[in-house]
Amino acid sequence: MWQCIIPTATLRPETIHASHLWANPGITYVRARVDDSIWIISKEAAEKLALQDHTVEIENEIAGQDLIDELSAIRFAVRSLSSRLILLILTSEAGSS
């Protein structure tokens, strides 16, 4: 699942260096082929990208809580390799999806 892109946009200073991501456990994300890449994005983001001259093919849906659980497992593995705090959570609101 993790050979993919998780695009982000933010104005929050703690996320500028990609040390934090925010996920909403209550929404559904999708694994989608966007042009020639695999992305993990919200369903709404997939719909908007399709309107912007991108080829978008949804491969499967991912429950928000399942995404958090998988990202937390990755966080644990990364934390054992680095002293840098990494908090992995995503949201679909305000352009953050």
Head-to-tail CA distance between termini: 18 Å
- Identify low-pLDDT runs: 78-91
Order of helices and strands: EEEHEHE
Beta fraction = 25-35%
Structural class: alpha+beta
What count of structural domains? 1
Anisotropy-based shape: globular
Q: Helical amount among residues, as a percent range?
A: 10-25%
Adjacency order of strands in the biggest sheet: 3-2-4
Radius of gyration: 13 Å
Biggest sheet, in brief? 3 strands, antiparallel
Describe the protein in words.
The chain contains 2 helices and 5 strands. By secondary structure, the protein is of the alpha+beta class. It has one domain. β2 and β3 (37-42) form a beta hairpin. The model is unreliable at 78-91 (pLDDT under 50).
What layout of secondary structure does this protein have?
Layout: E1 20-22, E2 28-34, E3 37-42, H1 43-50, E4 56-63, H2 64-79, E5 87-89
Parallel strand pairs: 1-5
Antiparallel strand pairs: 2-3, 2-4
